[in-house]
Amino acid sequence: MDLTSRCEQFVSGRGDGLLHVFVPHATAGVAILETGAGSDSDLLAVLEDLLPRDFGWRHRHGSPGHGRDHVLPALIPPYATVPVLAGRLTLGTWQSICLVDTNRDNPDRHVRLSFLAG
Question: Cβ(17)–Cβ(107) under 8 Å?
């Protein structure tokens, strides 16, 4: 899920500083990557290869393969920090801030945004 617009609105008019994006979930992460040109789909495909649902996960509650969802934040952390200049994110031309969540068991997700002025 692309969070960039939401983040842009949050920092608008705040001056210089840092935006911190955090998802308080054991099965989700935040990535900065290109979207819309296939990179987002590539990321999900690579995660499926690295963390296959049919692996013998020891974490057993939830739907089959749910253990992989709990390993995902070790590869894609549940946070990202982005510099802000004059109230604008300093992302590269093709960069977006994205929630990465492969957990089928819980569609309800929260994203916490904070701003450190400076």
Answer: no
User: Could you give the 3-state DSSP secondary structure of residue 88?
Assistant: strand
- pTM for the whole structure: 0.89
Q: How far is CA 101 from the centre of its chain?
A: 7
As a CATH number, domain 4-117 is 2.60.120.460
- The CA distances from residue 106 to 10, 35, 62, 65, 102, in Å, are 25, 23, 10, 14, 10
49-88 tens-digit pLDDT: 998 888 887 876 777 667 888 888 999 999 999 999 999 9
Q: Are 118 and 17 in contact (CB under 8 A)?
A: yes
In the numeric block, the tokens 């031309």 are attached to 93
